[in-house]
Amino acid sequence: MQFNLHYHIVCKTIESNKMEISIIGLPTSGKTTIFNALTRCTADIKPYASSGISTNLSVAKVPDSRLQELSKIFRPKKTTPAEVKYVDIGGLTKGFGKEQGISGQLLNYLSTSDAILQVVRAFEDANLPHIEGSISPRRDIETLDMELIFSDLIIIEKRLNRIESSLKMGKSGERDAALKEQELLLRIKEALDKGIPIRLQTLSAEEVHSTSNYQFLSAKPMLIVINIGEKQLSDAENMQADLIKAYTQPQIEIISMCGELEMELSQLGEKEADEFRNDIGLKEAAFDVVIRHSYSLLGLISFFTVGTDEVKAWTIQKNTSAVKAAGKVHTDIERGFIRAEVINNNDFIKCGSMPEARKHGLLRLEGKSYIIQDGDIAHFLFNV
Ligand SMILES: Nc1nc2c(ncn2[C@@H]2O[C@H](COP(=O)(O)OP(=O)(O)OP(=O)(O)O)[C@@H](O)[C@H]2O)c(=O)[nH]1
Ligand SMILES: [Mg+2]
Protein backbone atom coordinates (compact mmCIF):
# COMPACT_ATOMS: atom_id res chain seq x y z
CA MET A 1 0.00 0.00 0.00
CA GLN A 2 1.23 3.53 -0.78
CA PHE A 3 2.45 5.96 1.80
CA ASN A 4 -0.36 7.74 3.55
CA LEU A 5 -0.03 9.47 6.86
CA HIS A 6 -3.35 11.24 7.04
CA TYR A 7 -4.98 8.94 9.52
CA HIS A 8 -2.22 8.97 12.09
CA ILE A 9 -1.59 12.66 11.97
CA VAL A 10 -5.12 13.81 12.42
CA CYS A 11 -6.21 11.47 15.18
CA LYS A 12 -5.31 14.08 17.77
CA THR A 13 -7.46 16.63 15.95
CA ILE A 14 -10.41 14.29 15.98
CA GLU A 15 -10.26 14.12 19.73
CA SER A 16 -9.71 17.80 20.44
CA ASN A 17 -11.88 19.48 17.74
CA LYS A 18 -8.99 21.88 17.38
CA MET A 19 -6.47 21.69 14.59
CA GLU A 20 -2.99 22.82 15.57
CA ILE A 21 -0.73 24.51 13.05
CA SER A 22 2.87 25.58 13.70
CA ILE A 23 4.26 28.45 11.66
CA ILE A 24 7.95 28.18 10.80
CA GLY A 25 10.33 29.64 8.27
CA LEU A 26 13.66 31.39 7.92
CA PRO A 27 14.27 34.63 9.87
CA THR A 28 12.37 37.68 8.62
CA SER A 29 10.26 35.64 6.22
CA GLY A 30 7.17 37.27 7.78
CA LYS A 31 6.00 34.52 10.15
CA THR A 32 4.76 36.87 12.85
CA THR A 33 3.16 39.13 10.24
CA ILE A 34 1.23 36.16 8.84
CA PHE A 35 0.41 34.87 12.33
CA ASN A 36 -1.18 38.26 13.00
CA ALA A 37 -3.08 38.13 9.73
CA LEU A 38 -4.46 34.67 10.55
CA THR A 39 -5.37 35.34 14.17
CA ARG A 40 -6.16 39.10 14.10
CA CYS A 41 -3.51 39.43 16.81
CA THR A 42 -1.02 42.23 17.12
CA ALA A 43 2.15 40.39 18.08
CA ASP A 44 5.37 42.36 17.77
CA ILE A 45 6.83 42.66 14.25
CA LYS A 46 10.49 43.59 14.18
CA PRO A 47 12.48 45.00 11.27
CA TYR A 48 15.33 42.59 12.14
CA ALA A 49 15.61 38.89 12.95
CA SER A 50 14.62 37.98 16.51
CA SER A 51 17.23 36.24 18.58
CA GLY A 52 16.40 33.21 20.71
CA ILE A 53 13.33 31.03 20.28
CA SER A 54 10.13 32.99 20.90
CA THR A 55 6.60 31.86 20.37
CA ASN A 56 3.22 33.46 19.87
CA LEU A 57 0.13 31.36 20.39
CA SER A 58 -3.43 32.09 19.45
CA VAL A 59 -6.66 30.25 18.81
CA ALA A 60 -8.64 31.45 15.80
CA LYS A 61 -12.25 30.63 15.06
CA VAL A 62 -12.74 28.81 11.78
CA PRO A 63 -14.78 31.12 9.55
CA ASP A 64 -17.76 29.19 8.18
CA SER A 65 -20.66 30.93 6.45
CA ARG A 66 -22.79 27.78 6.81
CA LEU A 67 -22.56 28.04 10.59
CA GLN A 68 -23.60 31.69 10.44
CA GLU A 69 -26.64 30.80 8.29
CA LEU A 70 -27.68 28.07 10.70
CA SER A 71 -27.26 30.40 13.62
CA LYS A 72 -29.57 32.94 11.96
CA ILE A 73 -32.26 30.28 11.69
CA PHE A 74 -31.99 28.78 15.19
CA ARG A 75 -31.02 31.94 17.10
CA PRO A 76 -29.28 29.74 19.68
CA LYS A 77 -27.90 30.90 23.04
CA LYS A 78 -24.48 29.93 21.77
CA THR A 79 -22.83 29.56 18.35
CA THR A 80 -19.60 27.58 18.47
CA PRO A 81 -17.28 27.53 15.49
CA ALA A 82 -14.47 25.01 15.11
CA GLU A 83 -11.11 26.35 16.21
CA VAL A 84 -7.58 26.28 14.99
CA LYS A 85 -4.55 26.96 17.14
CA TYR A 86 -1.66 28.76 15.50
CA VAL A 87 1.81 28.75 17.01
CA ASP A 88 4.30 31.24 15.57
CA ILE A 89 7.85 30.09 16.21
CA GLY A 90 10.38 32.87 15.87
CA GLY A 91 14.13 33.11 16.10
CA LEU A 92 15.10 30.20 13.89
CA THR A 93 18.34 30.70 12.02
CA LYS A 94 19.71 28.75 9.10
CA GLY A 95 21.20 25.63 10.58
CA PHE A 96 18.73 25.56 13.46
CA GLY A 97 18.40 21.82 13.02
CA LYS A 98 22.05 21.17 12.40
CA GLU A 99 23.80 21.79 15.65
CA GLN A 100 21.89 19.75 18.19
CA GLY A 101 18.82 19.03 16.13
CA ILE A 102 15.53 20.74 16.76
CA SER A 103 15.05 20.31 20.44
CA GLY A 104 13.10 21.21 23.53
CA GLN A 105 10.11 23.46 23.25
CA LEU A 106 10.49 23.93 19.51
CA LEU A 107 10.46 20.22 18.76
CA ASN A 108 7.49 19.84 21.08
CA TYR A 109 5.47 22.41 19.18
CA LEU A 110 6.41 21.04 15.80
CA SER A 111 5.97 17.39 16.54
CA THR A 112 2.63 17.74 18.28
CA SER A 113 1.10 19.98 15.62
CA ASP A 114 -1.20 18.55 13.00
CA ALA A 115 0.41 20.53 10.22
CA ILE A 116 3.30 22.85 9.56
CA LEU A 117 2.76 26.21 7.88
CA GLN A 118 6.01 27.26 6.26
CA VAL A 119 6.38 30.95 5.43
CA VAL A 120 8.70 31.57 2.50
CA ARG A 121 9.86 35.07 1.73
CA ALA A 122 9.32 36.38 -1.79
CA PHE A 123 8.91 40.07 -0.93
CA GLU A 124 11.82 42.38 -1.70
CA ASP A 125 12.96 44.94 0.83
CA ALA A 126 16.39 46.52 0.46
CA ASN A 127 16.32 47.62 4.10
CA LEU A 128 15.76 44.11 5.34
CA PRO A 129 18.40 41.81 3.87
CA HIS A 130 17.58 38.12 3.55
CA ILE A 131 20.03 35.96 5.53
CA GLU A 132 21.23 34.41 2.26
CA GLY A 133 21.65 37.80 0.63
CA SER A 134 19.05 37.19 -2.08
CA ILE A 135 15.40 36.24 -2.52
CA SER A 136 14.79 32.68 -3.74
CA PRO A 137 11.68 30.85 -2.54
CA ARG A 138 12.86 27.58 -4.08
CA ARG A 139 16.16 27.66 -2.27
CA ASP A 140 14.43 28.51 1.04
CA ILE A 141 11.94 25.65 0.70
CA GLU A 142 14.84 23.28 0.11
CA THR A 143 16.77 24.71 3.07
CA LEU A 144 13.85 24.15 5.39
CA ASP A 145 13.30 20.65 4.07
CA MET A 146 16.93 19.87 4.89
CA GLU A 147 16.33 21.10 8.44
CA LEU A 148 13.30 18.86 8.85
CA ILE A 149 15.22 15.91 7.40
CA PHE A 150 18.14 16.59 9.73
CA SER A 151 15.88 16.67 12.74
CA ASP A 152 14.33 13.32 11.76
CA LEU A 153 17.81 11.84 11.29
CA ILE A 154 18.76 12.80 14.84
CA ILE A 155 15.65 11.12 16.23
CA ILE A 156 16.35 8.00 14.19
CA GLU A 157 19.99 7.83 15.24
CA LYS A 158 19.08 8.05 18.92
CA ARG A 159 16.50 5.33 18.50
CA LEU A 160 18.91 3.09 16.56
CA ASN A 161 21.46 3.39 19.37
CA ARG A 162 18.84 2.31 21.87
CA ILE A 163 17.77 -0.62 19.74
CA GLU A 164 21.41 -1.65 19.40
CA SER A 165 21.89 -1.68 23.19
CA SER A 166 18.70 -3.59 23.82
CA LEU A 167 19.70 -6.18 21.21
CA LYS A 168 23.00 -6.63 23.03
CA MET A 169 21.15 -7.16 26.28
CA GLY A 170 19.46 -9.91 24.36
CA LYS A 171 15.92 -10.02 25.69
CA SER A 172 14.77 -12.71 23.30
CA GLY A 173 11.04 -11.90 23.46
CA GLU A 174 11.59 -8.43 22.10
CA ARG A 175 14.28 -9.37 19.63
CA ASP A 176 12.12 -9.86 16.56
CA ALA A 177 10.27 -6.59 17.02
CA ALA A 178 13.53 -4.73 17.63
CA LEU A 179 15.14 -6.20 14.51
CA LYS A 180 12.11 -5.27 12.44
CA GLU A 181 12.12 -1.71 13.72
CA GLN A 182 15.86 -1.47 13.16
CA GLU A 183 15.47 -2.59 9.55
CA LEU A 184 12.73 -0.03 8.92
CA LEU A 185 14.56 2.87 10.57
CA LEU A 186 17.75 2.05 8.66
CA ARG A 187 15.79 2.10 5.41
CA ILE A 188 14.19 5.46 6.25
CA LYS A 189 17.58 6.80 7.34
CA GLU A 190 19.24 5.75 4.11
CA ALA A 191 16.70 7.76 2.11
CA LEU A 192 16.90 10.74 4.49
CA ASP A 193 20.68 10.70 4.07
CA LYS A 194 20.07 11.17 0.36
CA GLY A 195 17.88 14.17 1.13
CA ILE A 196 14.54 12.43 0.55
CA PRO A 197 11.90 13.60 3.07
CA ILE A 198 9.73 10.87 4.59
CA ARG A 199 6.67 12.22 2.78
CA LEU A 200 8.33 11.08 -0.48
CA GLN A 201 9.37 7.65 0.78
CA THR A 202 7.31 4.57 0.03
CA LEU A 203 6.19 2.93 3.25
CA SER A 204 3.46 0.39 3.86
CA ALA A 205 0.46 1.34 5.99
CA GLU A 206 1.83 -0.87 8.75
CA GLU A 207 5.22 0.84 8.60
CA VAL A 208 3.61 4.26 8.75
CA HIS A 209 1.65 3.11 11.77
CA SER A 210 4.68 1.72 13.55
CA THR A 211 6.61 4.99 13.10
CA SER A 212 3.75 7.37 13.87
CA ASN A 213 4.87 7.82 17.49
CA TYR A 214 8.07 9.48 16.34
CA GLN A 215 6.09 12.36 14.78
CA PHE A 216 8.70 12.76 12.05
CA LEU A 217 8.77 16.34 10.80
CA SER A 218 9.54 15.56 7.17
CA ALA A 219 6.36 13.47 7.09
CA LYS A 220 4.01 16.17 8.42
CA PRO A 221 1.46 17.80 6.15
CA MET A 222 2.84 21.20 5.20
CA LEU A 223 1.19 24.31 3.82
CA ILE A 224 3.77 26.50 2.13
CA VAL A 225 2.81 30.17 2.13
CA ILE A 226 4.75 32.35 -0.29
CA ASN A 227 4.89 35.77 1.33
CA ILE A 228 4.81 38.26 -1.52
CA GLY A 229 5.16 42.02 -1.55
CA GLU A 230 2.31 44.26 -2.64
CA LYS A 231 4.07 45.07 -5.90
CA GLN A 232 4.20 41.35 -6.75
CA LEU A 233 0.42 40.86 -6.44
CA SER A 234 -0.09 40.78 -10.20
CA ASP A 235 2.59 38.12 -10.57
CA ALA A 236 1.49 36.02 -7.60
CA GLU A 237 -0.41 33.41 -9.60
CA ASN A 238 2.53 32.69 -11.91
CA MET A 239 4.97 32.49 -9.03
CA GLN A 240 2.65 30.12 -7.18
CA ALA A 241 2.11 27.96 -10.28
CA ASP A 242 5.88 27.62 -10.83
CA LEU A 243 6.45 26.49 -7.27
CA ILE A 244 3.52 24.09 -7.36
CA LYS A 245 5.05 22.55 -10.47
CA ALA A 246 8.39 22.14 -8.73
CA TYR A 247 6.97 20.81 -5.45
CA THR A 248 3.99 18.65 -6.21
CA GLN A 249 4.39 16.17 -3.37
CA PRO A 250 2.08 14.25 -1.10
CA GLN A 251 1.33 16.20 2.10
CA ILE A 252 2.22 19.58 0.59
CA GLU A 253 0.07 22.47 -0.64
CA ILE A 254 1.33 25.84 -1.80
CA ILE A 255 -0.43 29.20 -1.65
CA SER A 256 0.69 32.81 -1.78
CA MET A 257 -0.39 35.90 0.12
CA CYS A 258 0.77 39.38 0.80
CA GLY A 259 1.43 39.04 4.52
CA GLU A 260 1.80 42.70 5.31
CA LEU A 261 -1.37 43.69 3.48
CA GLU A 262 -3.34 40.81 4.99
CA MET A 263 -2.21 41.79 8.47
CA GLU A 264 -3.43 45.34 7.91
CA LEU A 265 -6.74 44.09 6.52
CA SER A 266 -7.23 41.71 9.46
CA GLN A 267 -7.27 44.70 11.79
CA LEU A 268 -10.12 46.38 9.87
CA GLY A 269 -13.83 45.71 10.21
CA GLU A 270 -15.07 42.87 8.00
CA LYS A 271 -17.02 45.11 5.63
CA GLU A 272 -14.20 47.58 5.18
CA ALA A 273 -11.70 44.79 4.58
CA ASP A 274 -14.00 43.16 2.00
CA GLU A 275 -14.38 46.45 0.12
CA PHE A 276 -10.64 46.91 0.10
CA ARG A 277 -10.10 43.37 -1.17
CA ASN A 278 -12.64 43.95 -3.93
CA ASP A 279 -10.85 47.10 -5.02
CA ILE A 280 -7.53 45.33 -5.48
CA GLY A 281 -9.04 42.14 -6.92
CA LEU A 282 -8.43 39.78 -3.99
CA LYS A 283 -11.20 37.21 -3.86
CA GLU A 284 -10.83 35.76 -0.38
CA ALA A 285 -9.34 36.70 2.99
CA ALA A 286 -6.03 35.02 3.83
CA PHE A 287 -7.39 33.30 6.93
CA ASP A 288 -10.20 31.72 4.88
CA VAL A 289 -7.73 30.47 2.27
CA VAL A 290 -5.33 29.05 4.86
CA ILE A 291 -8.10 27.24 6.72
CA ARG A 292 -9.55 25.81 3.51
CA HIS A 293 -6.15 24.45 2.45
CA SER A 294 -5.40 23.14 5.94
CA TYR A 295 -8.66 21.20 5.97
CA SER A 296 -7.96 19.71 2.58
CA LEU A 297 -4.32 18.95 3.46
CA LEU A 298 -5.38 17.12 6.60
CA GLY A 299 -8.39 15.47 4.98
CA LEU A 300 -10.81 17.18 7.36
CA ILE A 301 -14.46 18.14 6.95
CA SER A 302 -17.09 19.79 9.17
CA PHE A 303 -20.48 18.69 10.36
CA PHE A 304 -22.98 20.60 12.48
CA THR A 305 -25.18 19.99 15.47
CA VAL A 306 -28.07 22.42 15.84
CA GLY A 307 -30.67 23.47 18.40
CA THR A 308 -31.92 26.48 20.31
CA ASP A 309 -29.20 26.03 22.95
CA GLU A 310 -26.25 25.71 20.66
CA VAL A 311 -25.32 25.58 16.97
CA LYS A 312 -21.90 24.05 16.68
CA ALA A 313 -19.36 23.10 14.01
CA TRP A 314 -17.36 19.91 14.51
CA THR A 315 -14.15 18.95 12.76
CA ILE A 316 -13.76 15.34 11.70
CA GLN A 317 -11.69 13.36 9.27
CA LYS A 318 -13.23 12.49 5.91
CA ASN A 319 -14.78 9.01 5.88
CA THR A 320 -15.83 9.14 9.53
CA SER A 321 -18.86 7.00 10.33
CA ALA A 322 -21.94 8.41 12.04
CA VAL A 323 -21.25 6.45 15.24
CA LYS A 324 -17.66 7.77 15.45
CA ALA A 325 -18.84 11.33 14.75
CA ALA A 326 -21.39 10.87 17.55
CA GLY A 327 -18.52 9.87 19.83
CA LYS A 328 -16.93 13.21 19.17
CA VAL A 329 -19.98 14.97 20.58
CA HIS A 330 -20.09 12.64 23.60
CA THR A 331 -18.76 9.15 24.34
CA ASP A 332 -22.19 8.18 25.76
CA ILE A 333 -23.80 9.04 22.44
CA GLU A 334 -21.37 6.74 20.66
CA ARG A 335 -21.96 3.97 23.19
CA GLY A 336 -25.74 4.15 23.04
CA PHE A 337 -26.01 5.13 19.37
CA ILE A 338 -29.31 4.16 17.76
CA ARG A 339 -29.61 6.31 14.65
CA ALA A 340 -28.69 9.70 13.23
CA GLU A 341 -31.14 12.10 11.65
CA VAL A 342 -29.14 13.75 8.89
CA ILE A 343 -29.74 16.56 6.45
CA ASN A 344 -27.36 18.50 4.26
CA ASN A 345 -27.10 22.11 5.48
CA ASN A 346 -27.94 23.56 2.01
CA ASP A 347 -31.16 21.56 1.88
CA PHE A 348 -31.99 22.61 5.42
CA ILE A 349 -31.29 26.29 4.82
CA LYS A 350 -33.59 26.19 1.75
CA CYS A 351 -36.39 24.75 3.91
CA GLY A 352 -35.75 27.05 6.86
CA SER A 353 -36.97 24.67 9.57
CA MET A 354 -36.85 21.01 10.58
CA PRO A 355 -40.64 20.41 10.20
CA GLU A 356 -40.48 21.85 6.69
CA ALA A 357 -37.43 19.70 5.84
CA ARG A 358 -39.21 16.63 7.20
CA LYS A 359 -42.29 17.44 5.13
CA HIS A 360 -40.13 17.44 2.00
CA GLY A 361 -38.57 14.13 2.97
CA LEU A 362 -35.11 15.67 3.21
CA LEU A 363 -34.39 14.48 6.72
CA ARG A 364 -32.87 11.01 6.47
CA LEU A 365 -32.49 8.33 9.11
CA GLU A 366 -29.01 6.86 8.94
CA GLY A 367 -27.35 3.97 10.76
CA LYS A 368 -23.99 3.53 12.48
CA SER A 369 -21.97 3.03 9.34
CA TYR A 370 -23.29 6.03 7.41
CA ILE A 371 -20.31 8.17 6.34
CA ILE A 372 -20.79 11.77 7.46
CA GLN A 373 -20.47 14.24 4.56
CA ASP A 374 -19.03 17.75 4.68
CA GLY A 375 -21.77 20.16 5.77
CA ASP A 376 -24.14 17.52 7.16
CA ILE A 377 -26.37 18.53 10.05
CA ALA A 378 -26.67 15.54 12.37
CA HIS A 379 -28.97 14.81 15.26
CA PHE A 380 -27.98 11.65 17.11
CA LEU A 381 -30.57 9.41 18.74
CA PHE A 382 -29.11 7.31 21.53
CA ASN A 383 -29.97 5.30 24.57
CA VAL A 384 -27.68 4.62 27.52
N1 LIG B 1 7.55 44.60 2.32
C1 LIG B 1 7.09 43.60 3.09
N2 LIG B 1 7.61 43.45 4.29
C2 LIG B 1 7.15 42.44 5.05
C3 LIG B 1 6.13 41.55 4.61
N3 LIG B 1 5.91 40.65 5.59
C4 LIG B 1 6.76 40.98 6.59
N4 LIG B 1 7.50 42.05 6.26
C5 LIG B 1 8.52 42.73 7.08
O1 LIG B 1 9.52 41.83 7.42
C6 LIG B 1 9.99 42.08 8.73
C7 LIG B 1 9.96 40.81 9.55
O2 LIG B 1 8.60 40.40 9.68
P1 LIG B 1 8.19 39.37 10.80
O3 LIG B 1 6.77 39.03 10.57
O4 LIG B 1 8.59 39.85 12.13
O5 LIG B 1 9.13 38.15 10.37
P2 LIG B 1 9.41 36.82 11.18
O6 LIG B 1 9.55 35.73 10.17
O7 LIG B 1 8.40 36.64 12.24
O8 LIG B 1 10.84 37.15 11.79
P3 LIG B 1 11.58 36.39 13.02
O9 LIG B 1 10.54 36.06 14.03
O10 LIG B 1 12.54 37.41 13.49
O11 LIG B 1 12.24 35.20 12.42
C8 LIG B 1 9.13 43.20 9.29
O12 LIG B 1 9.83 44.43 9.14
C9 LIG B 1 7.92 43.17 8.40
O13 LIG B 1 7.30 44.43 8.30
C10 LIG B 1 5.59 41.76 3.32
O14 LIG B 1 4.67 41.03 2.86
N5 LIG B 1 6.10 42.79 2.60
MG1 LIG C 1 8.61 36.49 14.35
Quick overview of this protein structure:
The chain is α/β, with parallel strands linked by helices and 384 residues long.
Question: By helix and strand content, what is the structural category?
Answer: alpha/beta
**CATH overall fold name of the largest domain:** Rossmann fold
Question: How would you spell out the order of helices and strands?
Answer: HEHEHEEHEHHHEHEHHHEEHHEHHEE
**Bound molecule types:** guanosine-5'-triphosphate, magnesium ion
Q: Walk across the major sheet and give the strand order.
A: 2-4-1-5-6-7
Quote the average pLDDT. 87
Q: What is the number of E strands?
A: 12
Strand content: 15-25%
Helical segment tally?
15
3D structure, described in words:
This protein is α/β, with parallel strands linked by helices. It has 2 domains: 6-298, Rossmann fold, CATH 3.40.50; 319-382, Roll (Ubiquitin-like (UB roll)). It has 15 helices and 12 strands. The protein has helices at residues 6-16, 31-39, 65-74, 104-112, 137-169, 172-193, 205-211, 236-246, 259-266, 270-280, 286-298, 322-329, 331-335, 345-351, 354-359, and strands at 18-24, 54-61, 78-80, 83-90, 115-121, 222-227, 252-257, 300-305, 310-317, 337-344, 364-366, 376-382. Strands 2-4-1-5-6-7 form a 6-stranded mixed β-sheet, with helices on both faces. Strands 3-9-8 form a 3-stranded mixed β-sheet, with helices on both faces. Strands 11-10-12 form a 3-stranded antiparallel β-sheet. Strand 6 (222-227), helix 8 (236-246) and strand 7 form a beta-alpha-beta unit. Helix 5 (137-169) runs antiparallel to helix 6 (172-193). The longest helix has 33 residues, at 137-169. It binds guanosine-5'-triphosphate and magnesium ion. The site of magnesium ion has 4 residues, from helix 2.
